Amino acid sequence: MNIVLLKKSIWSIALLTCLGFYFGFSPTTSAQDLQFSQFHNAPLYLNPAFAGMHQGGRMTLNYRNQWPSLDVNYVTYAGGFDYYFPNIRSSIGVIAKVDEQSTGTTPYKSTDVSLIYAYMIPLSDRLTVQPALQVGYVQKNAGFVGLTFPDQFSDRGFLGTPTEENFARNTLGYVDISTGAVLFGQNFWLGLSANHINSPPDSFIGDNNRLPIKISFHGGYKVDFSGRYDDRSKSITPSFMYKRQGSFQQISLGAHGEYAPLLYGLWYRGFPIEQSTNNFPKHDAVVAMLGVKFGGWALAYSYDWSISEVAGARANSHEISLVYSFGGKDDVACPNPFSEPRYRGARFR
């Protein structure tokens, strides 16, 4: 193993973690990014360093409908593409996302597009680290037309006069920078990502509110049950994801697997060691996933069963993902460290 490269990689990940604690874990705001329950099927959103992990090309499409039975409904569409160039051990990626939120009469829409560059650094025949940088542009639009404010009312009721509340704008745009790194071998992966490291402005009313950095620590290990002469892929991949943004923190624990052509998964999401204002553990949801894999395609549906205090059983969510991979190697663990013996770690031939 190249000790110098290993030390540099460990130092980079440690520095990234420290920056996240210093800049991202501040409790000054409660703003939160959207989430995907099938985080293994939204790899570029989870960590830009997952670009090119399939050692070929990959396309992902994700749809999430969160809390459709509540007045506060979130609908998210996301798409990504990444490709690996073996001659230069580099990968590029692009990810686009549209997030639509409806809170009564106030619509809100966020659209962003990002470009990703990742570079693969072999540490040994079985161990590789890949850092990445992501740069994007975000535009947010909020509709204030349906809102009413206290200065529009009197003791006789609603006056119908314009409000004197000062909204600096109803459109907000900014550059958003993220980074990440993944350490992986033949059957495992361990990643760390930091989103919004430039803490972009996040306010429509002209104040100094900024988007807090989101830190995510995640990993998984694939257990392959397929026999040498078995033509049916059989595996299970236990995985976890911890994230923190501002004062909000959460962990997802569970596993996804394959019994070809079927895909399945089950996760718990929440933060039970922390209590809510009502002194109850902070549970969020139990997620169940079923899907099918055919050729280079994988289609999956998941259902979030709410176990939180917020709106009880009404706060459930639906999610659909479609992944197409081509020109690479068979999946081993999320998201696609290499399976064949001659592709262990970073041994390229």
Structure summarized in a few sentences:
This protein is mainly beta.
Please, could you describe this protein's structure?
With 349 residues, the chain is mostly beta strands. It has one domain (3-343): monomeric porin ompg (Porin). Helices cover 7% and strands 51% of the residues. The protein contains two helices and 18 strands. The protein has helices at residues 3-24, 43-46; strands at residues 57-66, 72-85, 90-103, 106-119, 121-122, 128-142, 153-154, 157-158, 171-184, 188-195, 214-221, 223-224, 234-245, 248-259, 262-275, 281-294, 297-306, 317-326. The strands form two sheets. Strands 1-2-3-4-6-9-10-11-13-14-15-16-17-18 form a 14-stranded antiparallel β-barrel. It has a two-stranded antiparallel sheet with strand order 7-8. The protein starts with a helix and ends in a 23-residue tail after the last strand.
Order of strands in the sheet with most strands: 1-2-3-4-6-9-10-11-13-14-15-16-17-18
CATH level-4 homologous superfamily: monomeric porin ompg
What summary fits the major beta sheet? 14 strands, antiparallel, barrel
Mean pLDDT: 81
- Low-confidence segments, given as residue ranges, are 1-30, 336-349
Radius of gyration: 22 Å
The CATH class label is Mainly Beta
Helical content band: under 10%
Question: What percent of residues are in strands?
Answer: over 45%
Count of individual domains: 1
Q: Helix/strand/pairing class, anyone?
A: mainly beta
Overall morphology: globular
Total number of β-strand segments?
18
CATH architecture: Beta Barrel
Number of H- or I-type helical stretches: 2
Along the chain, the helix and strand elements come as HHEEEEEEEEEEEEEEEEEE
